Amino acid sequence: MNDPLRNDGLLRERITTYLAQQTGQPVSVGELTRFAVGFSWKTYLVPVQGLHGQAGVQRLILRLGPDYGLFAPYSAMPEFLAMRSLEGSTVPVPKAYWAGDDRQHFSAPFLFSECMQGDAVVPWVPAGTPPLEEGYRRALGTQFIDALAALHCVPWQHQPIAQMAGAITVENAALRNVEFWERQIQRWAMRPYPAADWAVRWLKDHCPVAPRVAIVHGDYRTGNFLEQDGTITAILDWELVHLGDPHEDLGWASLPMYMGGSKFISRLCEPEWFYERYREKAGFQVSMESVRYYRAFSLLKLAATHMAAARCFEEGRFSDMRMPAMGSQIATCLRQLEKTIEAKP
Amino acid sequence: MNNSFPRLIDGMCATLRTEVLTRLDDEFARGQVFGVINLLNTLKARGDWSVGFLAQQVSAQCEALNQVRQLLQGVPDSPALPELRAPTPMSAQDMGALRDEHNRRIGDMLQWLSLHHAQLPPELAQAIEGHLRQSMRTEIEIELRNSPRPLFAEMSSGQEN
What we know:
The complex is a heterodimer of chains A (345) and B (161). With 345 residues, chain A is α+β, with helices and mostly antiparallel strands.
């Protein structure tokens, strides 16, 4: 097979060539390991010997966004720009080394980054799973809140991510976002969903004004950070990053799907503590009406990603067996979406 | 097939868990197997033997019995046979197309209502919206009643707790 996306041996060869070109020195690439985590990009652990002439093996992460993937066509640039913009900030992010959208190297957009130590805490747990140990939960929760607040305080206007700003303002941030996801639903839905149309109309009619335009992670939750011995070592999965209302990340992180059957936001934080500590650190008053708005928006976005998964599998672009399983969750999102909109603020 | 549809699904899931997963070390491959189990459970909740397949068998029976019935006309002491009609079931595909057509109408009606709400008597607007939204809710509830618990934790980690 002459496709590095389907042939790990060929992918290793291509990585070896690419890294040698970038560093100007020969390197040796070891056996690749593909991670099960992530439903969109393909993620590999790449052991490299001789990188920048250094002794020993260095471990890199390579992410590839195949043209047959869930949200294809992909671009590695938002993630790359965000990670570069956050270098030196208090937001723990892996160092981003190289990225590109051209297909000549790996037949897909790609991103090489630092491999961070730690494990992911999964948001989905079987019924009856005991809650996280109290001290551990509070320690992670504190860092989870602080990293989010730090992200929303980054003065992005002079960072690489400013390239993505377009004409965004505090007034139009919500509407631009809803219109973007409305277009995705039109693109991905394989049948009419009047409940989604109804929700889009409600979201357009109730757009809040953002307290500021900030870097929004777009998928900030348990499962998308690594922790080691109670310390968050890295916030990962920046593929949905964009500029927008910081309330969006609060809405997403507090989705019931990520509570793991507990009463804690992302299995980590009591809601009152989460919003209060975030307010202190981020330096603006959290609007619970905006949180509710963005929780509803997040459920629409989640429903849209499930529609993408169903279409991706149906069209035969991808035979990842997790895709149709995701597709079966559209109804769950739409039911929760209506409840969220109907809930009293 | 002589086994029931749900029992076959249960058997496939059990085989994957006890015979395949126990011998599989690769995390990604294990996640895929959990994806397959998740889908098999969905099929168990929503699927059944093809109606079209059964309809063909029943049609063949009807044709044979109707011909025998004709042949037996006038034969003394022969068993009485009713005249049979071959069934014309709607396929799941046709039924799905009908549901989508109705959903399109519901969506169009809601859109129309949002534009003309102010011109309608409030009780009328409320009643129309109530019916349309109740229909959307019912469709979703039926779907959820026929959905197994998703195995996202297992699919992401390749591990079963």
